[in-house]
Design brief:
The protein has 70 residues and is an alpha+beta fold. The chain is built from 2 helices and 4 strands. Helices cover 26% and strands 23% of the residues.
């Protein structure tokens, strides 16, 4: 049985109600994505918000994360 959360050093993502759970692929994408010179970041289809949270740790950019919940 998998956990209802994914714990990082500085935050925890509770994904028990998300269709797409946090996994290695999302963590790797968030670690790989560059945002050094960005002033604004838009994450459309953010899911659990993992990548937006990871970007918030690494940059002072204004971050907008949008997910449609039907």
């Amino acid at each position: 049985m998998s956990n209802a959360f994914f714990k990082f050093k500085q935050f925890t993502v509770y994904h028990d109600r998300c269709a797409m759970k946090v996994g290695t692929d999302g963590v790797m994408l968030g670690a790989w994505a560059g945002a050094a010179d960005c002033k604004t970041i838009l994450d459309v289809g953010t899911g659990s918000g993992l990548i937006a949270l990871m970007m918030a740790q690494r940059t002072d950019a204004e971050i907008h994360a949008v997910e449609i919940d039907l």
